[in-house]
Amino acid sequence: MTRFDGKTVIVTGASSGIGLATAQRFSEEGANVVLVGRDAEALAKAARNMDQARTLTIAGDVSREPDVISVAEAAVARFGAINVLVNNAGIAMSGRIDEMSLEDWQKVIDIDLTGVFLMSRAVWPQLEKAQGSVVNTSSVSGLGGDWGMFAYNAAKGGVSNMTRALALDARDSGIRVNGVAPALTRTGMTEEMMGDEALVQKFLERTPLGRVGEPEDVAAVIAFLASEDARFVNGVIIPVDGGLHASNGQPPQA
Ligand SMILES: NC(=O)c1ccc[n+]([C@@H]2O[C@H](COP(=O)([O-])OP(=O)(O)OC[C@H]3O[C@@H](n4cnc5c(N)ncnc54)[C@H](O)[C@@H]3O)[C@@H](O)[C@H]2O)c1
């Protein structure tokens, strides 16, 4: 499939996990891909199997405005336009309110929420020119609360509702804004959890499809939302969770 021939896609947090799978998916589908992350070496490694003529890596921190402006400028300088922005960079942090420092709270909000605002604002004029779209990686943690993760819940809840609000504000601009809400997915972020068999089993008991997510599961839905196939889909957050979110939260009875 080459749904993205001649299109330029920026993916943040692209050196690992869901971001890397997403960058690979867009590259396989013909896009020019701009991989953004904090570590230049990790990005170069992530991009090594992609068609170099259609690949650009830029080291930058999405919570720093000068960095995101440089990303937008470099993408346009290299490829002439920006059609799709995937706001995927993020960090997770656990801890209840009596355990959370202001510094840690600020870090989660700065990267997970403010980063989405800054990156989107930096590329908005280009997206408008290209009639492009934004896909945000929220989380099931941005659709409801978790135990002991309130800062992450606050940030991802913000991403979910920002997605809906930006879709409204984009009225008449031609820009679509959507998101994905993955559940437990096998990446570096969840490596420790995945090593805890009893914990994974608890997740599986509440997941009708009976397995954890893989980065490629999420990448496929991100690519769909960014594609012409989703041309009339706007302001939605699609759970990519094997059915977890279909439950009202009560435990399995059988
Ligand atoms: N893995 C899961 O179970 C899961 C579930 C739901 C949502 N998510 C979300 O998916 C997204 C991707 O996470 P992942 O699971 O692939 O983990 P990951 O740790 O492999 O990927 C996150 C990436 O973001 C990058 N990053 C972090 N802070 C950054 C910053 N300030 N600027 C630029 N890049 C930065 C990291 O370097 C990393 O490459 C995150 O937003 C995460 O919250 C993950």
Whole-Å distance between the termini? 42 Å
Count of structural domains: 1
Order of SSEs:
EHEHEHEHEHEHHHE
- The fraction of residues in strands falls at 5-15%
Please identify the structural class as seen in this structure: alpha/beta
Mean pLDDT: 97
Task: List bound small molecules.
Answer: nicotinamide-adenine-dinucleotide
How many beta strands in the DSSP annotation?
Answer: 7
How many helices? The count is: 8
| Helical content class | 40-55%
CATH architecture: 3-Layer(aba) Sandwich
Biggest sheet statistics: 7 strands, parallel
Computed Rg: 18 Å
Q: What is the CATH T-level topology?
A: Rossmann fold
Sequence of strands across the biggest β-sheet: 3-2-1-4-5-6-7
Q: Supply the CATH class.
A: Alpha Beta
Describe this structure in words.
This is 3-oxoacyl-ACP reductase. Belongs to the short-chain dehydrogenases/reductases (SDR) family. Pfam families: adh_short_C2. InterPro entries: KR_dom, NAD(P)-bd_dom_sf, Sc_DH/Rdtase_CS, SDR_fam. It comes from Haematobacter massiliensis. This protein is of the alpha/beta class and about 250 residues long. It has one domain (about 10-245): NAD(P)-binding Rossmann-like Domain (Rossmann fold, 3-Layer(aba) Sandwich), CATH 3.40.50.720. Helix content is about 45%, strand content about 15%. It is built from eight helices and seven strands. It has helices spanning about 15-30, 40-45, 65-80, 100-130, 150-170, 190-195, 195-205, 215-225, and strands spanning about 10, 30-35, 55-60, 85, 135, 175-180, 235-240. Strands 3-2-1-4-5-6-7 form a seven-stranded parallel β-sheet, sandwiched between helices. Strand 1, helix 1 and strand 2 form a beta-alpha-beta unit. Helix 1 packs across helix 8, helix 3 (about 65-80) packs parallel to helix 4 (about 100-130) and helix 4 (about 100-130) runs parallel beside helix 5. The longest helix has 29 residues, at about 100-130. It starts with 7 loop residues before the first strand and ends in a 14-residue tail after the last strand. The structure holds nicotinamide-adenine-dinucleotide (NAD). Nicotinamide-adenine-dinucleotide (NAD) binds near residues 13, 19, 38 and 88.
